[in-house]
Amino acid sequence: MSTKTSIRSKLLSVAFAAGALIVAGGLVAFLGEGKNALYWALCLHGGALLVLFAGARSVLTQLEQPLHQLMAISRHFSDGKPAHPGPIVDNEIGAAVRALLETQAEVESKRQKELRQFEQIARIKRGLDVVNTNVMIADADLNIIYVNASIQRMLRDRESDLQKSLPHFDAGTLVGKNIDIFHRNPGYQRKLLGGLGGAHKARIHVGDTTFSLLVHPISNNGERNGYIVEWQDLTDSLAQEQKEQALQEQQAELMSENQRIRRGLDVVNTNVMISDADLNIVYMNESILEMLARNEAEIQKDLPHFDARNLLGQNIDLFHKNPDMQRRMLGGLTDTHSAMLNIGDSTFNLQVTPIGKPDQRQGFVVEWRDMTDILRREAETEESNRKQRELADINSRIRNALDNVSSNVMMADTDLNIIYINDALRDMFRGSEALIQQELPEFSVDNLLGKNIDVFHKDPAHQRHMLAALQDTHYAKISIAGRHLAFIANPIFNEEGERLGTVVEWSDTTNETLAQAEIADIVEGASRGDFNRRINTQGKEGFFLELADGMNNLMETTSDGLSEIARVLSAMSRGDLTERIEKDFDGMFGQLKDDANATVDQLAGIVTQIKEASDAINTAASEISAGNNDLSQRTEEQASSLEETAASMEELTSTVQQNAENASQANNLAQGASRIAQKGGDVVNQVVTTMRTISDNSRQVEEIISVIDSIAFQTNILALNAAVEAARAGEQGRGFAVVATEVRNLAKRSAGAAKEIKELIVTSVDTVEEGSQLVDDAGATMKDIVDAIGQVTSIMTEISAASAEQRSGIEQVNTAITQIDDVTQQNAALVEEAAAAAESTEEQARSLVGSVSLFKLDADAGNQSIMTQPSSDAPFSTELKTPAVVAPRVKSSDGLMSQSSKSDADGDWEEF
């Protein structure tokens, strides 16, 4: 039989027995006579009372445990804590206990669900509270259920103006009121809003304030749930009277938060104790109870009667040796006070925070922290950290030094795994990485760390054996894919002599090796007279490039010098005295050039003089006779020609003077045009710079628009999540679902606007780039114009200088004509004297001409016999053409021959 059935039957049995005794006593008293009957009646009634008492005691004993459980569950239920009553008896009270437990679990489940819904709604609310759009939400009856912070600020700023038309308007109490308060004709507005199928924009005037309203209906499955209204203050002002409402909401949230904090304190790991103003302990959470229980033995060394489980209701003075001092300190406390409390071998850190001002003190909150193990670990950690810092500092200095040295350093552990390479070695390997991979395909500079040093060797076993037995410095060279590498390996030992690894210093000797071979090759060729070999400079840099250039220059200079000398000597051996060393040389080669050219010049001069003398003599001998006959006539004609020539030269002088002045003016104009063109080029360069700056700014704006687009997208996602969460909340989240929908619409509109702005910016960037390209082309054209004007200026300068030289030359010609006139007068007297010498020299001249005809004195062989021409105009014609010769060193033989011939002839005539 169940316990529940036994209690009921027991109660029935007791009641039946007591009733039977009472009935029996009544019968005895009624039927009996005398004192005995009354005595037995009283006895029967007393027995009935005893039966009732015993039965009641038995039932109460059986119901005591479930009643205690019921009371404990009620206390936990009132405190918001889960209850654990233990085994539950199967009776009426046990059923009540189970029902109460189920009720508590259901209430807790609903509370948690409501808390989650509240947090979701609060997140949406916080999102709307921080947007700059003025948002108001009303239900289907046009009662305001939400206004965000932005619209509150706007209405507070305009409250005084609004009250001129709406005397009872209060921006702080809008929630709960009907939107009809803003309209003079609510019926018209309700009719308009009732038939609203989409967004509706309107403008209202309230007092001196004008608002623009954008109304969106909120519907769900065809049922109108409310409206969302976006406000815009067209008078650029915001409301000022939402502070009180915000404060009330904040206080309500604070009260709710305090309740959550109290429930949270019960489950947090922070050790919290709360006392009243008289320092009596009124609250301790589970965490501090467990902490004090763990340290109870240590605390009892100084406080023998300490009991962690019986602290509630006791005074906090029990922890202090001098309570009066602590009370005075706590009485004047205005801020959190931190203190260290040493009890036994335990150390506690106390953070005491007063509740209320000193004159309105409500109590104290004390946060306990067991610092015993923490202080011990901190001391141990500090010592360990100190040693590690010292070691780390040493290692850091060594590593920094290795990272910054120019030597190529690698370190490997005892298994020859690479554990360190410095930047210099990494750079060296990176420059040869492609070549090394031709023989070692797996080689990679970026993946060397952790790899084994065997990657550099075709025979790793030999290298491992050598490095494993290494006790001292080891030098070696290897060749990989044409790269020559040298390394110096040193073993690393600790203080106990244990092998820790190997440090290797690498060097790339490819350039040295190749340079040595190339130098040996060209030196060997030079020793055999081959100066055409050169060192290839491709791929070289620094010292090796300078060395290669120096050797190549040396070979080039030597080859050029010897080739030039050989060429001149070869021409001399053939009788050709027209060749000269034209190239420029320094030092010994320069001296060889000067000496060789001087030798050829001296020899050519001697031969020229001989040839000129022989030609002159031969010509004189053969022509003197014929010349003497018509010399008189030609002398007269020459005098007449000289007069005409003098007149022409005067006109020419005037013309050249005018040309010189015109050339000078043209030169000045060209220089002015050059300066103007240069200024124009500078302006175009500034325009180019400005266009590039505009292009860069346009790109930056494009990037900013991209960020705005991304923000709009994220806002859309957040609004979608909020709508989903609001949908889960059911009826309670319907209003926030509407808000989330409108936020999504705003995000889409923002994204669309950002996209359009981005497209405009992209078009602007393209246009700016085209303009920048056109300006670049204009700058290049202007530069070409500046260069062309500079060339014109240079040419005009040369023309001006040439005109000045022409004027000077014509003046000299005038002087020469005057001198020729004098000489012509003398020639008439000398004609007869020349005839006598002609016959005596003619025979000797023929012999001398035959001797010097073997030498070539000019590139034009026909010029060798120029003096044999019987023309008196030849010397004058030769002098006029001489200044036009471009290369005087090569073409000067004609002029030299004519001048020498004239000088020698004049001297001969005078001597004769």
Give a structural overview:
The protein has 912 residues and is an alpha+beta fold. The protein has helices at 3-31, 34-79, 92-130, 149-157, 159-165, 186-194, 243-265, 286-294, 296-299, 323-331, 372-404, 423-431, 433-439, 460-468, 510-527, 542-573, 587-729, 734-852, 874-881, 888-911, and strands at 134-139, 144-147, 200-206, 209-220, 223-233, 271-276, 281-284, 337-343, 346-355, 363-370, 408-412, 418-421, 474-480, 483-493, 499-508. Helix 2 (34-79) packs parallel to helix 3 (92-130) and helix 17 runs antiparallel to helix 20 (888-911). It starts with a helix and ends with a helix. Mean pLDDT is 73; it is low at 1-5, 237-242 and 861-912.
Short description:
This protein has helices at residues 3-31, 34-79, 92-130, 149-157, 159-165, 186-194, 243-265, 286-294, 296-299, 323-331, 372-404, 423-431, 433-439, 460-468, 510-527, 542-573, 587-729, 734-852, 874-881, 888-911; strands at 134-139, 144-147, 200-206, 209-220, 223-233, 271-276, 281-284, 337-343, 346-355, 363-370, 408-412, 418-421, 474-480, 483-493, 499-508. It has 912 residues and is of the alpha+beta class.
- What's the CATH class of the largest domain, please? Mainly Alpha
Given the structure, what is the number of helices?
20
Radius of gyration: 61 Å
In CATH terms, the superfamily of the largest domain is Methyl-accepting chemotaxis protein
Q: What is the CATH fold-level name of the largest domain? A: Helix Hairpins
Total beta strand runs: 15
Query: Strand order, biggest sheet?
Result: 2-1-5-4-3
Which of globular, elongated, flat, extended, rod-shaped describes the shape? elongated
CATH architecture classification name of the largest domain:
Orthogonal Bundle
Tell me about the largest β-sheet.
Answer: 5 strands, antiparallel
Structural class label: alpha+beta
The percentage helix is: 55-70%
Instruction: Estimate nothing, just give the exact number of structural domains.
Output: 6
Q: Pick out the low-confidence regions.
A: 1-5, 237-242, 861-912
CA-to-CA gap between the ends?
Answer: 181 Å
